[in-house]
Design goal:
30% of the residues lie in helices and 21% in strands. With 807 residues, it is of the alpha+beta class. The protein has four domains: 5-320, no CATH class; 324-457; 470-501 and 672-805, no CATH class; 530-587 and 594-652, Immunoglobulin-like (Sandwich), CATH 2.60.40.10.
Length: 807
C-alpha cells in the first residue's frame, strides 16, 4: 500500500465516519488495501491470541470500564513524564491518590469537594465517552488527552499482549497488558475497533516525525481452507508494509465536546453491544451503569450523546462515581454512613464504607444487583448480590437499601492476587476470599447501628394481629403435616406453631432505651474531642484487660461527623501506634522481638466515627502471652491539630468456653408473622404499599429470619389490594361484606401458606448445593405474581374451607 499521507488521511476519515459495522464491513471487503491479508498482522505478534481476547470481561460494561481505566492511566503518565520523572523511579508517586494530588493539585486525590462544578467539568473534558451512529448499537468512542503514542510504538503499546508495560508503575491501575482487549469482543459481529493516537509533543524525545497513527483491529475472517486448518480464529490489526498508517495533523474535529483533537488517543468501538437498559441516551443510562463500576474514579470523565440529530442539544453528563454522588450530589437520599476498618497482618488494611439509603429510595440507581462491591483504586473488581445482605448479614429489611464498599486498595499484593481474577470483574472463590468474607460478615453483623436501623424498619411493618395468628394456626392444624413437611419451615430443632416467641423484641427495646439515654448528637466537620472511655487505675493508667483468646472493645468519644474518615475532602485518619511492649518476664528470652506495628500483635477493627463514637476491637494474636502489656497511642488526625489518647492493653487468662446446657423443653420458634398490606392506610396499624415500595402487580414479600433464629422466615406480607385479587372480586361480582371478607381471607391464607412451603422447599435445595442457586427474596415474589391467579380459581381443601367459614 502507498504511504502517501493524503491517501492515508482519506482512508482514516472513511473508516472513522461510518455509522455502523455493516457500513465498515462493506468498505473492508471492497477496499483493495483492506482486502489484502498481507496488510494485517496478528495482535500481540501471535495467532494464538483468541483466548486472551475472549476470556476477559464477560459483560460489555466492565469491558468498557477497562478502556476508561487506561485513559486515566494515560493522563497520569503524561503528567509524570512531562514533569521529567520516570514513572518507574522512586521519585514517581506511590499510588493513584498521590499522583492526582501532585499533578492536578487535588488534595488527597478527591475532586468531589475540592473542585467547583465548572472545574470538575473542565477536568472531565480530558476523558470523553462519545456515542454516535445507531440507536440500538452505537459506535462508542473513548478519548483521552493523555500521553498518546508515536505510530512506531503502537506494536509495543496498544497492540501488545502480556508485556510488562505498567507492572513497575505504582500509580496506575492497568498491570496485565490485556484488559483493554475485552471490549473488542462486544464490537458487533466482526469485532471492529479503530485505534488512533498522536504522541504529546512535549514527550516526543528524541524528536521524531510526529503524526496521527491509526489502525483497525478485527477478528480475522477465516477462509475456507483456513477453516479446515485452524481450530480458532485470531485477532489482527491493519499495518500495510508492516507499518502503522499515519498522517500529519495540527488539530482535527473528531466530534468531541468543546474541543478538537490535537494529541492523545481515541478508541472507537463499532456497533458496541450495550446491554438492555443502557442503549438509549448514554448520558443517562450508561452513566448510571458506569457509576456502579467506577465507584470512585481517580479522575472525572464526560459522557457525550450525539445520536439524536444536529437539531437537538447533545446530552452531556459528568461521571464522578457513586461515592461522590452519594456524598455530595444526592446526599439527601442517604440516611446514614457507617465506616469500618479491618487491620489484619495476613490481609492488610481493608476499609469498609456502608451507605444506608432512606426508605423509599430507588436503590437500583446506585446498587443495581451489586450490594457489596470490592474496589481497588476506586474501580469495582468484584461484587456480591443483594441476597448477601439478608442471608449472610441477617439484615433483611436493609437488603435493598445498603451499598457496602470494601476498599481493597491497601491489602497485601499476594492476598489481592488470590482474591481477584485478572479480568478485574470476578472474585476468586478461594481460601483468601472466604477469610475476607468471614471477617466482613463478622464485623458488619456486630454493628449495633445497622441492627438498630434494621429493627426499626422491621418494627414499622411487623404489627401484631391476633386474628390472623389464630386463623393461620387453625389452618395449619387442619393440614396433615408430616415430619418432612415440618422440616421445611425451620432452621433446625423442633417446630411448634401454637406458641409464638418474640424475645428479640425485648432485646431491641433495651437498645432503644440506651439510645434515648445518650440524647441527641451534635457533630462538627472537624473534631475537637477525642476522649477514651476507660477509667484510670491506681497508678493513673488507662488499662484494658483482654483475654488471650477473646476480644476487647475500647470506645472513644468524639464530636466529628460520621463520614470524617471516608469523605472526599478534609478527611482524617485514625492511627494506632505501639509506644512500648512489656512481655511477661517469667518466659525468659525465647519470645519474638519488640513489635513495630499494632498488626503484629492484634487483629484490629475500627468502627466509626458513628454518632460521636469510635470503637476499636482488639483480638490478641498467638505471639502474645498472658501477662503481656502493650502501650498504645490512638491518634485522630485533623487540619486543626491531631488529637491523641494513650492507653494500655493487658493480656489476661483465656476465657473458658461455656458448655451448652441442654434444656428439657427448648423454646419453640414463632410462626412467621402474617402482614396484611393495603394500598392506603385505613387504620393506624395498616401496612401500606409505601412501606414495601409496592404497586398493584406485587403480591407477596418474604422477610427471612437471621440464621441465629430457628425459623426460616420472620414474616410474610400479602398485598390485599393487588390487581390479581381486585380483578377476581370484580369478575365474580362479589359485593357483600361477608363475601368480600371470605374472598380476602382465602387469598391471604393461600398466598401465605404457598409462600411459606415454597420458600422452605427452595431454601432446603439451596443449602444442599455448594453454590446457591436461587435468590429466594427475588424469585418467590416474581413466581407468585403469576401463580396467585391460579390460586384464586383452584379448588380449596374442604378442611381449609371449613376453617375459613368457621365451621
Amino acid at each position: 500500500m502507498s504511504q502517501n499521507p493524503k491517501e492515508l488521511e482519506s482512508l482514516f476519515w472513511l473508516l472513522f465516519n461510518v455509522e455502523d459495522e455493516d457500513a465498515l464491513h462493506k468498505i473492508v471487503r471492497s477496499n483493495p488495501f483492506l482486502q489484502d491479508e498481507n496488510n494485517w498482522q496478528p495482535y500481540g505478534g501471535t495467532r494464538g491470541n483468541f483466548g486472551t481476547f475472549e476470556n476477559q470481561q464477560p459483560h460489555p460494561i466492565p469491558a468498557l470500564v477497562e478502556k476508561i481505566t487506561n485513559s486515566i492511566d494515560s493522563l497520569l503518565l503524561k503528567k509524570c513524564r512531562e514533569a521529567g520523572i520516570d514513572p518507574k523511579s522512586s521519585e514517581a508517586p506511590k499510588d493513584m491518590t498521590e499522583a492526582v494530588e501532585k499533578y492536578f493539585s487535588i488534595k488527597q486525590g478527591n475532586f468531589g469537594e475540592m473542585l467547583s462544578p465548572s472545574e470538575r467539568r473542565n477536568l472531565a473534558e480530558e476523558i470523553q465517552i462519545v456515542a454516535t451512529g445507531d440507536k440500538a448499537r452505537p459506535n462508542i468512542t473513548i478519548y483521552d488527552n493523555g500521553e498518546g503514542q508515536h505510530p512506531d510504538d503502537f506494536v509495543n503499546t496498544f497492540l501488545s499482549l502480556h508485556n510488562n508495560n505498567k507492572t513497575d508503575i505504582h500509580f496506575v491501575q492497568g498491570k496485565y497488558n490485556m484488559g483493554s482487549t475485552g471490549a473488542v469482543v462486544f464490537c458487533g459481529n466482526h469485532r471492529y475497533q479503530l485505534i488512533a493516537s498522536k504522541l504529546s509533543d512535549k514527550l516526543n524525545i528524541p524528536k521524531r516525525i510526529n503524526g496521527l497513527g491509526f489502525t483497525l483491529v478485527r477478528r480475522h475472517p477465516l477462509t475456507g481452507s483456513q477453516e479446515d486448518h485452524y481450530r480458532t480464529s485470531w485477532y489482527e490489526y491493519f499495518a500495510p508494509n508492516n507499518a502503522i498508517p499515519r498522517f500529519p495533523i495540527t488539530d482535527i474535529d473528531l466530534g468531541l465536546n468543546e474541543r478538537k483533537f490535537s494529541t492523545g488517543s481515541i478508541v472507537r468501538l463499532y456497533s458496541y453491544q450495550l446491554p438492555r437498559g443502557s442503549r438509549s441516551d448514554i448520558s443517562i443510562d450508561l452513566w448510571r451503569e458506569l457509576n456502579q463500576y467506577l465507584y470512585q474514579p481517580a479522575l472525572p470523565l464526560l459522557l457525550v450523546e450525539r445520536r439524536f440529530g444536529d437539531s437537538q442539544k447533545h446530552g452531556t453528563k459528568l461521571l464522578l462515581g457513586n461515592k461522590t454522588r452519594i456524598a455530595l450530589d444526592e446526599r439527601e437520599k442517604k440516611e446514614k454512613v457507617i465506616t469500618l476498618e479491618i487491620r489484619k497482618d495476613e490481609i492488610g488494611t481493608v476499609a469498609i464504607e456502608i451507605s444506608v439509603f432512606r426508605h423509599g429510595v430507588n436503590q437500583r440507581e446506585f446498587i443495581g444487583d451489586k450490594a457489596i462491591v470490592f474496589t481497588v483504586n476506586g474501580q469495582v473488581h468484584g461484587s456480591l448480590a443483594r441476597s448477601f445482605i439478608s442471608q449472610e448479614l441477617g439484615l433483611a429489611m436493609l437488603r435493598d437499601y445498603l451499598l457496602v464498599q470494601v476498599d481493597c486498595t491497601n491489602i497485601r499484593t499476594q492476598f489481592r492476587q488470590d482474591l481477584f481474577m485478572a479480568n478485574r470483574h470476578n472474585l476468586k472463590h478461594s481460601e483468601s476470599f472466604e477469610k475476607l468474607q468471614d471477617k466482613i460478615i463478622e464485623v458488619i453483623k456486630a454493628n449495633d447501628d445497622l441492627r438498630h436501623i434494621n429493627q426499626l424498619r422491621k418494627d414499622k411493618i411487623l404489627r401484631d394481629n391476633s386474628a390472623d395468628d389464630e386463623l393461620l394456626k387453625n389452618l395449619l392444624q387442619a393440614i396433615p403435616l408430616d415430619k418432612d413437611l415440618l422440616n421445611l419451615l425451620k432452621q433446625n430443632g423442633r417446630l411448634d406453631f401454637l406458641k409464638p416467641s418474640h424475645d428479640h423484641v425485648h432485646d431491641e427495646a433495651k437498645h432503644h432505651e440506651r439510645e434515648k439515654e445518650k440524647g441527641p448528637k451534635t457533630s462538627k466537620r472537624l473534631p475537637s474531642i477525642f476522649k477514651i472511655n476507660l477509667k484510670e487505675d491506681k497508678d493513673g493508667k488507662r488499662v484494658k484487660s483482654i483475654p488471650l483468646n477473646g476480644k476487647g472493645v475500647i470506645e472513644f468519644e468524639t464530636d466529628v461527623e460520621d463520614e470524617y474518615l471516608f469523605r472526599p475532602y478534609e478527611k482524617g485518619e485514625f492511627q494506632i501506634q505501639i509506644l512500648g511492649y512489656q512481655p511477661n518476664d517469667t518466659e525468659g528470652g525465647t519470645k519474638p522481638g519488640k513489635p513495630k506495628k499494632v498488626e503484629d500483635v492484634f487483629d484490629v477493627t475500627v468502627t466509626g466515627p458513628t454518632d460521636n463514637s469510635i470503637k476499636i476491637t482488639f483480638e490478641p494474636k498467638e505471639t502474645l502471652s498472658v501477662g503481656d502489656s502493650v502501650d498504645l497511642n490512638a491518634r485522630l488526625t485533623s487540619p486543626d491539630g491531631d488529637l491523641e489518647s494513650m492507653f494500655y492493653v493487658r493480656i489476661v487468662d483465656p476465657q473458658r468456653k461455656q458448655e451448652d446446657k441442654k434444656k428439657d423443653t427448648p423454646k419453640p420458634p414463632a410462626l412467621p408473622k402474617p402482614i396484611r398490606v393495603y394500598e392506603k392506610q385505613f387504620e393506624g396499624s395498616d401496612a401500606t404499599w409505601e412501606d414495601f415500595s409496592w404497586g398493584g402487580e406485587d403480591v407477596v414479600k418474604v422477610i427471612p429470619a437471621p440464621h441465629s433464629q430457628e425459623l426460616v422466615i420472620d414474616a410474610i406480607a400479602v398485598n390485599l389490594d393487588s390487581f390479581v385479587l381486585t380483578r377476581y372480586i370484580s369478575k365474580q361480582k362479589i359485593s357483600n361484606e361477608q363475601g368480600l371478607k371470605y374472598t380476602k381471607d382465602k387469598f391471604f391464607a393461600s398466598i401465605y401458606l404457598h409462600t411459606l412451603f415454597l420458600y422452605g422447599t427452595l431454601d432446603k435445595m439451596n443449602k444442599s448445593e455448594e453454590e446457591q442457586k436461587f435468590d429466594l427474596e427475588e424469585l418467590i415474589p416474581n413466581l407468585m405474581k403469576g401463580y396467585s391467579s391460579f390460586l384464586m380459581y383452584a379448588n380449596t381443601d374442604d378442611a381449609i374451607l371449613s376453617n375459613l367459614k368457621g365451621e
